[in-house]
UniProtKB/TrEMBL annotation:
Pfam families: DUF6933, PRiA4_ORF3. Residues 3-164 form the DUF6933 domain. It comes from Alkalibacterium putridalgicola. Residues 193-360 form the Plasmid pRiA4b Orf3-like domain. SUPFAM superfamilies: MM3350-like. It comes from the Bacteria. InterPro entries: DUF6933, MM3350-like_sf, Plasmid_pRiA4b_Orf3-like. This is PRiA4b ORF-3-like protein.
Length: 382
């Protein structure tokens, strides 16, 4: 595995090498700017940046644009850089369902458990690294804490980083090249089939049955629910677990702490917690998702079953019952009134309500389909 480093990072590595009294464990700093690797699959670029007063190391995979993130970048911490790198690769590829064996094959395929480092000179590859940095700046609520940066956001940024305009998305590109050079990827994915039921008062509930990989986070589950209920993610949300704990969006948590909001109970950031961290066959099999604290859309969630697959698996909608509900309509009572008006052309407010709901009705006609939702869900995670 080879890393092309900017001058600043290369100097930090050399300083760490002096502190170690020789070489850094599993890392060799090369005198020239070349790479001993024969394949881009094993090459990365690294830069050090400051974002919101935090020092980060940003690594981008040369071929695909996959991105790894690290906090605390002084020379002393670089003594443990290989351990950091290995842990981040395991976390990122593990979210795709790679087995331990397949990840280890990638880490050791070319030069064993060693990294070589040399000076970065390819401006195109440096540009891809800069593109990842710009994505981090756009996601300003990444700064929840070190775990969030190194886990959830490196996954999201990897998905988005397509600065070289390659034909395939980053994860798909990486997997394709991996299988070309190393061989088939072995997968193992633990899943939960969950029923998400939007409680509608006197009206029939709106139900979605979803398969969710357990290595994904509650933030991913939030995004999946938003997609299959055709919500616009324009309001606050929270998960209320069976054990009483509360899980909210990372930005919500930052704002609560900044303005000293909230009660005695601690709220956890959704991007910090994988589903497998909280949901087990014994605990939290039933919980609640609330979206829009004004309209108060309450979704009852029940885990129907746990199972495993030895293949690549994405979130998937397997069954849907009932139409999505428009936002900003006043909750279940407001929706009941909306149906009364929209279904009665003689009602005094029919034309006004129909014009207000034009966008919703158009999306309902075009996109309210299992296949469409599943296409979007797959695109969100590959």
């Amino acid at each position: 595995m080879h890393i092309f480093a900017t001058r600043k990072v290369l100097q930090a590595f050399k300083k760490a090498e002096k502190m170690a009294g020789g070489s850094i464990e599993n890392i060799e700093i090369l005198a020239d700017s070349g790479s001993p690797e024969e394949e881009e699959l094993f090459e990365w670029h690294i830069n050090s940046v400051k974002i919101n007063q935090e020092d980060l190391l940003v690594l981008t995979h040369d071929l695909s644009g996959l991105t790894l993130l690290f906090l605390n970048t002084d020379a002393e911490e670089l003594l443990d850089f290989y351990e950091w790198f290995e842990e981040a690769v395991y976390d990122l590829l593990g979210k795709l369902g790679f087995t331990h064996k397949s990840i280890q094959q990638y880490l050791t395929h070319s030069k064993g458990s060693n990294l070589t480092v040399s000076k970065a000179t390819d401006f195109k590859k440096i540009g891809r690294n800069s593109s990842a940095v710009n994505l981090i700046r756009q996601l300003d609520h990444y700064q929840e804490n070190e775990y969030t940066i190194q886990s959830y956001w490196q996954y999201q940024i990897s998905h988005l980083n397509r600065s070289l305009k390659q034909e395939h998305r980053p994860f798909k590109q990486f997997i394709s090249e991996y299988e070309k050079i190393i061989g088939p990827v072995n997968y193992h994915v633990d899943l939960a089939e969950i029923e998400v039921r939007l409680k509608m008062g006197g009206l029939p509930d709106v139900i979605r049955i979803i398969q969710m990989p357990m290595q994904l986070t509650f933030e991913d589950l939030h995004r999946v629910i938003q997609k299959v209920f055709m919500w616009q993610d324009a309001h606050l949300h929270q998960f209320i677990m069976e054990d009483g704990s509360t899980i909210i969006g990372a930005q919500q948590k930052v704002n609560m702490e900044r303005y000293q909001m909230g009660g005695e109970e601690e709220a956890y950031a959704a991007s910090q917690l994988k589903l497998a961290d909280v949901i087990t066959p014994e605990t939290n099999g039933v919980f609640t998702y609330v979206y829009d604290f004004g309209d108060d859309w309450v979704h009852s969630i029940r885990v129907r079953t746990f199972y495993s697959e030895n293949r690549q698996v994405f979130p998937k909608l397997s069954l849907m019952s009932g139409d999505p509900v428009p936002e900003n309509i006043g909750g279940p009572p407001g929706y009941a009134y909306f149906l009364e008006v929209i279904n009665d052309p003689t009602h005094d407010e029919h034309s006004v309500i129909k014009e207000w709901a034009n966008d919703y009705l158009s999306r309902l006609n075009l996109f309210n389909d299992v296949n469409h939702f599943n296409h979007d869900l797959k695109s969100m995670h590959i």
